Amino acid sequence: MKLGMVGLGRMGSGMTKRLEAHGVEVETFDPNVLSTARSLRDLARRLSSPRHVWMMVPAGTVTEETFQKLLGTLEPGDTIVDGGNSNFRDSQRRHREARRRRISFVDVGVSGGVWGFEVGFCLMAGGDAGPIRRLRPVFEALAPEDGCAHVGPSGAGHFVKMVHNGIEYGLMQAYAEGFEIMERSELGLDLTEIAGIWRYGSVVRSWLLELLHAAFEQEGAGLDRIAPYVQDSGEGRWTIAAAIDEDVPAPVISAALFARFASRQDESFAAKVNAALRNQFGGHAVKVEPPKKR
């Protein structure tokens, strides 16, 4: 089988290498990286019908622009795959737009990060059965054994990946809080050793814990080189919005997202309000900041 891959960033390049290692011929296009094709049109010319083109580009404007260009380039019977972290509502709309041109659209949630090349990528596919069946050789090359599934209709792949990432927020925050409690204690705990032994037999063992242990070994248990600033890429927000739509309480994921917001504040006005109120009603002392230089 031959596949077109658009986007050769950290994920796209690893996926391309894994596909080629498993016997899938891949034509590539990325305007910022050396590719086999010079343009999307050139990429399409290098593929035989029915064409299968996989987008592995950042969600948002880049995905939309690439999708629209592919709609104008591909032909009826071809398939567009979005493997990025798009909002599932956008994926449902793109499926409808593509169908009007008799082009298939498949949304695939991809998990595995930069380690996927070695261990495989978990794939969650949404869309019509026909194109997903035709893409089976690609899915089997990318995923480890039992690591891919057709999870539902259009939008389902990105919806499931969205919830997956929301759960990831909660797991990461729980580890973060637990290790901070241990780091602050007076017991002189060896966090690297603790993360290490928890990998074996512990009920909280996981791949994330293995990565934390690796981070401690690389950076030191104090993580001194890493700033306490945590970005979010949108999936946590979308998960909480979906929880609100479905009347599902999601306090852990919500708290994890808000903790990321807090990490990005140079100073908290809310904390100042709290301190001022305690001073007003109880006469509690406040910490006075030095005047800012102008």
Structure description:
By secondary structure, the protein is an alpha/beta fold. The chain contains 13 helices and 7 strands. It has helices at residues 10-21, 40-45, 61-73, 88-100, 116-119, 129-134, 136-142, 156-184, 191-198, 207-219, 235-245, 251-263, 269-282, and strands at 2-6, 25-29, 52-55, 79-82, 104-111, 122-126, 148-152. A 7-stranded mixed beta sheet has the order 2-1-3-4-5-6-7, with helices on both faces. α8 crosses α12 (251-263). The chain is elongated, with a radius of gyration of 23 Å. The N and C termini lie far apart (64 Å).
Shape: elongated
Give the overall average pLDDT: 95
The structural class is alpha/beta
Order of helices and strands: EHEHEHEHEHEHHEHHHHHH
Question: What is the compact description of this entry?
Answer:
By secondary structure, the protein is α/β, with parallel strands linked by helices.
List the helices and strands and how they pair.
Blueprint: E1 2-6, H1 10-21, E2 25-29, H2 40-45, E3 52-55, H3 61-73, E4 79-82, H4 88-100, E5 104-111, H5 116-119, E6 122-126, H6 129-134, H7 136-142, E7 148-152, H8 156-184, H9 191-198, H10 207-219, H11 235-245, H12 251-263, H13 269-282
Parallel strand pairs: 1-2, 1-3, 3-4, 4-5, 6-7
Antiparallel strand pairs: 5-6
Helix pairs in contact: 8-11, 8-12, 9-10
Question: What key phrases describe this protein's structure?
Answer:
single chain, 13 helices, elongated
